[in-house]
Amino acid sequence: MQLRQLIKNALMAVLQVVVAGGVYYVLYKFLLGTIGIALLGVWSIVLATTSIGRLSQLGFGPSIVRFVAKNVARADYDGVVTVIHSGLIFIASVTGIAILLFFPFARWALGFVVDPDVLEPALELLPWALGSLWLTMIAGVYQAGLDGYQRMDLRTTLVMASTIAYLLLCLVLVPAHGLMGLAWAQLLQSVLLLFATAGLLKLLQPTLPLLPTRFRKDTFRELMTYGLNVQAMTALNMLLDPLTKGLLAKFGGVSLVGWYEMANR
Predict the structure, then answer these.
(1) Phi-psi label, residue 169: left if phi above 0, alpha if psi -120 to 50, beta otherwise
(2) Which of 153, 120, 139, 229 is nearest to 188 (CA)?
(3) Alpha-carbon torsion (206, 210, 215, 220), positive or negative
């Protein structure tokens, strides 16, 4: 049964790559015909700038996967709830505060790398992009919980569904609202992913209250210790995309960032 689940997880991971590739092909072709390559580059550099905020997660995603799986193996489902709730409380509060503190730096960074003629729309997108990032990080806790149950197939199914939903939202919102429609589509995608992932994990673990109330210092300490070790190994990789796009925008312009975004996807 375990081997069968592993094979299913692997096949779904491959399918996710195929679906994402198809969706982004259609999406970028659509965006080139509506907002153009320059504004696509603006959106890309805004997302890259806000992605630096992921450093505030401190590697909690892999930690939650590890300790949820550990408690599931022991049939300690109260422990599962404690791990998930401790992660939710940390991500929702601490990373939320970190994102608010990061906002002035993000504005400065955009002003430094983005051409003045497209700076205003970039700054208008920033709050929406940061809000989407915060919701996505909270949803990431529930996704890590699914992985801890070795149900990567369910997680990838939700991610594929949310990616398709994002495409449909863009097709509706971008023609009417332009670049801002792209930001609203991503925010709505994050909301849908959050509620869908939370609901699915609730089905797997019926004793999981959707409102996080359980927080234990010893559990938090374990999550933090393991997560910091993971974060130390991945921090440079997390900074690679924003640094690359920042340099491209600074010395090549936002249109070059747009082409890089499409090629990188």
Answers:
(1) alpha
(2) 139
(3) positive
Rounded to the nearest 10°, the torsion over CA 173, 48, 25, 165 is: -40
For residue 190, give the nearest of 234, 138, 231, 264 by alpha carbon: 138
The secondary structure of the chain, three-state, reads CHHHHHHHHHHHHHHHHHHHHHHHHHHHHHHHHHCHHHHHHHHHHHHHHHHHHHHHHCCHHHHHHHHHHHHHHCCCHHHHHHHHHHHHHHHHHHHHHHHHHHHHHHHHHHHHHCCHHHHHHHHHHHHHHHHHHHHHHHHHHHHHHHHHCCCHHHHHHHHHHHHHHHHHHHHHHHHHHCHHHHHHHHHHHHHHHHHHHHHHHHHHCCCCCCCCCCCCHHHHHHHHHHHHHHHHHHHHHHHHHHHHHHHHHHHHCHHHHHHHHHHHC
Integer-rounded Cα radius of gyration of the chain: 19
The total number of residues shown for the chain amounts to 265
Q: What is the pLDDT of residues 225-239, one digit of tens each?
A: 877 777 666 666 777
- List the chain domain ranges: 2-264
CA distance 22 to 16: 10
Residue 247: φ, ψ to 5°: -65, -40
Contact status, residue 8 vs residue 153, Cβ threshold 8 Å:
yes
The first and second tokens of residue 185, run together, are: 């589509």
pLDDT tens track for 147-182: 898 888 888 899 899 999 999 999 999 999 999 999
Q: How many CB atoms lie within 10 A of CB 98?
A: 17
Task: Fill in the amino acid letter for 231.
Answer: Q
Nearest to 46 by CA among 122, 118, 100, 109: 122
